[in-house]
């Protein structure tokens, strides 16, 4: 069995003191309660935490609410304790302790116990960077109230001054447009995420699962290759799956032995960083944005604008070319041309 400090995140423990754990140099995942198990993780050692904790809503009965076939639902799901306020504060206390001073934390919550998260966040003095709404494709059927079809995602840091990783051009640039000529980057950066849940018919799964697309988005924006990503409630091991494929190391916990044993074998087959070739960071096309313009550069832009008139009929086409050549947005280019006119 590998020693716990292979990921350089854990306190030193003797070999015979280790709880059941599986992993290699890229992941360490324990089959135990996260609040107790997290004590072995060193302070400030994790760059990104992503947790989808039990909602305390009798999740083991979800198959009747969603009218799902429970044949492929794993047994052994552990409900949250009845004192949800204490439960939330206890595990979030450990999250804050192990989070790097410049790290990021994303927490998924339903609206029913939202107050427990707010209380814990205020008590621990965490800073809320964003409050994201995740809108999904189907919700709980209701007869006398509106259908719930969204979850809340807290994006947190230890302090407002944290120098957190946020890779704004990891998925789109300012030049990427959809079929209606709307900015794909702007849509991706909005704090309402429309991401469908995954049906996965016929597949063995835990009671609830985050979509891979949602987890990938968080990991891409808020971590770098080789960073450590932690999930206190592995469930279907979606965080582990996505992180390993994106070249991030993983630590975490899953208390359900059925889910743990099934998924730990599955992720052992994942090739580390296999998705990196498709997920390389996109170079910012506006690399000079915000930099002071020299008189020489202004002259070059105006001269080039005149030259391009021989090739492009419309001003918009010429401005787009200049934006790419000089690394500045269309607004800046238009202002330079206007002043020269």
Brief overview, please?
With 341 residues, this protein is α/β, with parallel strands linked by helices. Helix content is 31%, strand content 16%. The chain has eleven helices and nine strands.
CATH architecture tag of the largest domain: 3-Layer(aba) Sandwich
> CATH top level of the largest domain?
Alpha Beta
- SSE pattern, N- to C-terminal: EEHEHHEHEEHEHEHEHHHH
Q: What average pLDDT do the residues reach?
A: 84
Low-confidence stretches: 1-6, 11-19, 64-68
Which descriptor suits the 3D outline? Answer: elongated
Radius of gyration: 24 Å
Helix content: 25-40%
List how many beta strands DSSP finds.
9
Q: In the residues, how many domains can be counted? A: 2
The major pleated sheet works out as:
9 strands, mixed
Based on the model shown, name its key terms:
disordered N terminus, Rossmann fold, elongated, 341 residues, 9-stranded mixed beta sheet, alpha/beta
Written description of the protein model:
This protein has 341 residues and is of the alpha/beta class. It has helices at residues 34-37, 62-65, 84-98, 114-124, 184-189, 212-222, 238-245, 257-267, 295-308, 315-326, 330-340, and strands at residues 21-23, 27-30, 46-52, 99-109, 127-135, 150-157, 192-194, 228-231, 249-253. It has a 9-stranded mixed sheet with strand order 1-2-9-8-3-4-6-5-7, sandwiched between helices. α9 packs across α11.
């Amino acid at each position: 069995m590998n020693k716990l400090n292979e990921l350089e995140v854990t306190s030193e423990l003797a070999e015979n003191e280790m709880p059941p754990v599986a992993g290699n140099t890229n992941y360490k995942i324990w089959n135990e309660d996260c609040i107790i198990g997290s004590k072995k993780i060193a302070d400030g050692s994790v760059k990104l935490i992503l947790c989808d904790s039990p909602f305390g809503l009798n999740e083991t009965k979800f198959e009747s609410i969603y009218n799902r076939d429970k044949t492929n639902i794993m047994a052994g799901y552990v409900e949250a304790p009845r004192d949800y306020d204490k439960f939330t504060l206890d595990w979030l206390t450990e999250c804050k302790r192990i989070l790097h001073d410049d790290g990021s934390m994303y927490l998924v919550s339903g609206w029913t116990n939202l107050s427990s998260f707010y209380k814990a966040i205020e008590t621990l003095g965490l800073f809320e960077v964003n409050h994201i709404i995740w809108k999904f494709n189907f919700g709980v059927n209701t007869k006398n109230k509106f259908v719930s079809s969204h979850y809340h995602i807290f994006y947190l840091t230890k302090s407002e001054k944290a120098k957190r990783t946020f890779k704004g051009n990891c998925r789109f640039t300012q030049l990427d447009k959809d079929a209606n000529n709307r900015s794909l980057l702007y849509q991706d950066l909005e704090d309402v995420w429309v991401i469908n849940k995954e049906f996965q018919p016929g597949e063995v799964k835990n009671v609830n699962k985050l979509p891979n697309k949602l987890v990938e988005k968080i990991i891409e924006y808020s971590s770098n290759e080789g960073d450590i990503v932690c999930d206190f409630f592995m469930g279907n091991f979606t965080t582990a799956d996505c992180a390993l494929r994106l070249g991030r190391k993983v630590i975490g916990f899953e208390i359900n032995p059925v889910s743990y044993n099934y998924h730990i074998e599955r992720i052992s087959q994942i090739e580390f960083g296999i998705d990196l070739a498709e997920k390389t960071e996109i170079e910012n096309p506006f690399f000079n944005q915000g930099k002071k313009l020299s008189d020489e550069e202004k002259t070059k832009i105006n001269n080039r604008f005149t030259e391009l008139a021989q090739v492009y009929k419309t001003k918009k086409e010429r401005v787009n070319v200049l934006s790419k050549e000089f690394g500045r947005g269309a607004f800046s280019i238009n202002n330079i041309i206007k002043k020269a006119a």
